[in-house]
Design a protein that fits this description.
- Chain B: Keywords: Tellurium resistance.
- Chain B: Belongs to the CAPAB/TerDEXZ family.
- Chain B: It comes from Azotobacter beijerinckii.
- Chain B: This is Tellurium resistance protein TerD.
- The structure holds 2 protein chains of 2 kinds.
- Chain A is α+β, with helices and mostly antiparallel strands.
- Chain A has 11 helices and 19 strands.
- In chain A, strands 2, 4, 5, 8, 11, 12 and 13 form a 7-stranded antiparallel sheet that branches.
- In chain A, strand 17, helix 8 and strand 18 form a beta-alpha-beta unit.
- In chain A, helix 3 packs across helix 5 and helix 3 packs across helix 10.
- The longest helix of chain A has 16 residues.
- Chain A starts with a strand and ends in a 5-residue tail after the last helix.
- By secondary structure, chain B is mainly β.
- Chain B has a 6-stranded mixed sheet, with no helix packed on it. Chain B has a 6-stranded antiparallel sheet with strand order 2-12-11-8-4-5.
- Classes of the chains: A alpha+beta, B mainly beta.
- Chains A and B meet through strand 13 of A and loops of B.
Chain lengths: 414, 192
């Protein structure tokens, strides 16, 4: 079998004429590496997130790139869209360590089940790198070629995403506190069923340069009658499941403060990795028994209660509040006043419209003038399932970094 | 307007720039964006005679011997400031001063300690060589090495050579295995 060395290039036609190609990795040593394949455009950018193929997104949209096993990719090169110019296979360390610790590893490329070329690599060719481009397929003069790249970045997956994306927000990451455990590890220990969500959340956090940020996370749930169906179908519980990994990441206590509201607000118990899984059906007797007065919408009372809660003894720690409602807003004037005045507090409001129509003032809060900083964002979904989890996390983290930066500049946030 | 050459192509510098007496040759490549062991590329010039061997040991101009014995070929080192900025290395050549025995100047780039560091030209992007008129700094010819290099650790970028009364420039882009020492030996440099 032909052995490649670092930097070696060759036309794919010199090893196979088949369009179906298998790329298999054999990673040795104690490092936990996450493998991915990035499908890049001619500018070397990941212009379509769906072309990042990894364990959480094991197929590209056209299925030309598939993760077959945790360490094997299958390619159908003839099916790769013309806009994808380059397929870069990467490995990033999950957890501590550098690639210097990598054992005697190799990758093999060839026909399905029949490798034709191999490339050995080990820790000795690396220094402090934590993420690496192992091998790439690229188009040149109408044909695919291979390059055994084997070069990487000290800053890990974050730097790789930056290298391929340029979407990374400009907020400089605050240094992570010592002993900060990776999100995935925290979740894996207590709630293995959330690991897949935690991994996706981690990617969004890294893209938004939020991995070193400490914050408290709150959830405000519309408990009005029109939301009944969302509760019954388990969608509200799913909101909890999706938000919890963010709370665990941002918050050293790893808990999510929670309120529900009808005409009256009620602060519920804190949601944690231990109690989350049936929280909506069990906390305070379950959602049907929550004491929300008549099941109509009175947003301003719950907003007041949350502000009061975080005003007490929170100092200047940033707070991220997710406010979920299907609309039918009451007393817009009071809401505007509360949110405007709260712009001087370290609270960011992410409003999400769920399965409703009339979001009224919630849609407009985002563009309100006369605030110290833009302290809220809004987007609407007909169904929680309309957005992939990855995109949901991206959207949830869309304006938070910008707010953090502005609020820091004004001394609102520590 | 500079002449843009493709691999193997050549151009008469004397015709492109009548009255030409001296040139600056700039060599460059993309600074890499990845981390890892340091990557050092060095430019060298071999002033060779009819037999393709260096005229003497000082006719091998590189980082340890920055000037030829005749003084007409001088390695300027890094050219991060001043004229022709953007080139990674710059060599000035006084064509008019070179003796008739100097038939050809070969411009090569090698990777320092490539083998020990597991490095090769497969990791170098957007390499080029360009020839500028020393008088005025106008670019006369340019060659962008668009070929995909691979495991080579030395690369001949281009040549200045005599053709009758003219000086011409040829785009080479030829890889060479083994690095600087075997390359130098190939041109008859006595390294002992």
């Amino acid at each position: 079998m032909l052995e490649l060395i670092r930097g070696q290039r060759l036309p794919l036609s010199s090893i196979t004429h088949s369009s179906s190609v298998e790329v298999a990795f054999d990673i040795q040593g104690s490092l936990a590496l996450d493998l991915a394949c990035f499908g890049l455009d001619a500018q070397g950018k990941l212009s379509d997130d769906r072309y990042m193929v990894f364990f959480n997104q094991p197929e590209s949209p056209c299925q030309s790139v598939r993760l077959l096993t945790p360490t094997t990719f299958g390619l159908s090169l003839a099916e790769v869209p013309a806009g994808i110019d380059r397929l870069v296979f990467t490995a990033a360390i999950d957890g501590q360590g550098t690639l210097r610790q990598l054992g005697a590893s190799r990758f093999r490329i060839g026909d399905v089940g029949l490798p034709k070329v191999a490339c050995a690599f080990a820790g000795e060719i690396f220094a402090e790198e934590r993420a690496v481009m192992l091998v790439e397929f690229y188009r040149k003069d109408g044909a695919w070629r291979l390059n055994a790249v084997l070069q990487g970045f000290n800053e890990g997956l974050d730097a790789l995403v930056h290298h391929f994306g340029g979407e990374v927000a400009e907020v400089p990451p605050a240094p992570a506190p010592a002993g900060h455990v990776s999100l995935e590890k925290k979740v894996a220990a207590a709630a293995p069923q959330l690991v897949s969500l935690a991994k996706k959340a981690q990617v969004s956090l890294e893209k938004a340069r939020l991995t070193g940020v400490r914050a408290r996370v709150g959830l405000i749930l519309d408990g009005s009658g029109s939301m009944h169906n969302q509760y019954k179908r388990g969608r509200v519980q799913e909101v909890v499941n999706r938000l919890l990994p963010l709370a665990v990441h941002f918050d050293n206590d790893g808990q999510l403060d929670c309120w529900a509201f009808g005409d009256l607000p009620q602060q519920l118990g804190s949601i944690t990795l231990q109690n989350f899984h049936d929280f909506i059906d069990t906390d305070h007797g379950g959602w049907r028994k929550w004491e929300l007065g008549s099941r109509i919408n009175t947003e301003y009372r719950v907003i007041e209660q949350a502000i009061e809660f975080y005003r007490r003894g929170n100092g200047a720690t940033p707070v991220y509040i997710l406010f979920v409602s299907d609309g039918g807003i009451y007393d817009s004037r009071r809401i505007v006043k509360l949110i405007s005045e709260a712009a001087t507090l370290p609270i960011f409001w992410q409003f999400v419209g769920l399965a409703g129509r009339n979001y009224g003032i919630l849609e407009k809060l985002d563009d309100m003038n006369g605030r110290a900083v833009d302290n809220c964002n809004f987007f609407a979904l007909d169904d929680l399932h309309d957005l992939s989890e990855e995109i949901l996390y991206d959207r949830l983290m869309e304006e938070f970094p910008g707010w953090l930066k502005a609020a820091r500049a004004k001394g609102i946030v520590a | 307007m500079a002449v843009s050459l493709s691999k193997g192509g050549n151009v008469s510098l004397s015709k492109e720039a009548p009255g030409l007496t001296a040139v600056n040759v700039g060599l460059g490549w993309d600074a890499r964006v990845t981390d890892g062991a340091a990557f050092d590329l060095d430019a060298s010039v071999f002033v060779v005679g009819e037999n393709d061997k260096v005229l003497n040991d000082q006719a091998f101009v590189f980082y340890n011997n920055k000037k030829s014995a005749c003084g007409n070929v001088e390695h300027q080192g890094d050219n991060r400031s001043g004229e022709g900025s953007g080139d990674d290395e710059l060599v000035s050549v006084n064509l008019a001063g070179l003796g008739a025995e100097a038939k050809k100047l070969v411009f090569a780039v090698t990777i320092h300690e490539a083998t020990a560091r597991h490095q090769s030209f497969g990791q170098v992007n957007k390499a080029y060589i360009r020839v500028m008129n020393q008088a005025g700094g106008t670019e006369i010819a340019r060659f962008d090495l668009s070929e995909d290099a691979s495991t080579e650790t030395a690369m001949i970028f281009g040549e200045l050579y005599r053709h009758g009364e003219e000086w011409k420039f040829k785009a080479i882009g030829q890889g060479f295995a083994g690095g600087l020492a075997p390359l130098a030996a190939n041109f008859g440099v006595n390294l002992a």
